[in-house]
Design a protein that fits this description.
Blueprint lengths: L4 E5 L4 E6 L6 H9 L12 E5 L2 H19 L7 E9 L23 E6 L7 E7 L12 H15 L14 E8 L5 E5 L4 E4 L15 E7 L3
Antiparallel strand pairs: 1-2, 2-8, 3-4, 4-10, 5-8, 5-10, 6-7, 6-9
């Protein structure tokens, strides 16, 4: 793993770490994902997933734990809440309304997302957003009510976005950053930041882990 690159994003200057060459054998992770049966898990993710072995997820958590202390002030580091191999497979025309908007994983301050890109070729990246009316780039418990009310008013005024992956500024959201995907690159960021996948048309939405947009997602949180 190379030395981390720190980005302080947006007006809120929330930290994001880019870790290249994250895993010693990323091709073994691809083969592991290909050996598993993937399926839909929950209504939010636009594709299929399979659980990552618990020992592997814990090893990855321990690898980044010192970085969470240094850059996020989390000591001790939160534990693994969920861990998945994930493949984006949903065609833009089939996206549910909730999948056309930026989202956050939870409002808790100790919630961390780790996203490891395992696909080859054009993979897009991850984009981060600001809610225009409130200026929120992250949502904690104190902001949640205002965020929801503002979103409801915005949808009433502008309607739901068209059935497509969000690709830039919208009437409700302003894009503040895009972190490009790269094979064996990990992104580490707070789970309460507004974000979504950046998926230009060149990204293959294949259900084959060896061909599609494969990622490994760790969600760290003290349940």
């Amino acid at each position: 793993m190379t030395d981390p690159i720190l980005h302080l994003q947006g007006r809120e200057q929330r930290p994001l770490l880019v870790l290249d060459d994250f895993w010693s054998d990323p091709h073994a992770l691809r083969e592991d994902a290909a050996s598993l049966r993937m399926g839909e898990i929950g209504p939010h993710y636009p594709g299929v997933r399979a659980a990552v072995p618990a020992r592997l997820a814990e090893t990855m958590r321990r690898r980044i734990a010192p970085l969470l202390t240094e850059h996020f002030g989390l000591d001790p580091a939160p534990g693994v809440s969920e861990a998945y191999y994930s493949l984006v497979t949903t065609a833009p025309a089939d996206l549910a309304p909730i999948q056309r908007l930026p989202h956050f994983d939870g409002v808790e301050p100790r919630r961390i997302a780790v996203l490891l890109f395992l696909g080859e070729g054009e993979q897009g990246g991850t984009a981060f957003y600001r809610q225009r009316e409130t200026g929120y780039e992250s949502v904690d418990a104190a902001r949640l009510g205002a965020f929801k009310d503002t979103l409801a008013r915005g949808v009433q005024t502008h309607g739901m976005p068209d059935a497509s992956y969000i690709a830039g500024d919208t009437p409700l959201y302003e894009r503040i950053a895009v972190q490009p995907a790269r094979f064996n690159r990990a992104l580490v960021y707070a789970g309460n930041t507004l974000h979504c996948a950046y998926l230009p048309p060149e990204v293959a939405l294949s259900a084959d882990p060896m061909r599609g947009r494969l990622t490994l997602n760790l969600f760290l949180f003290d349940d």
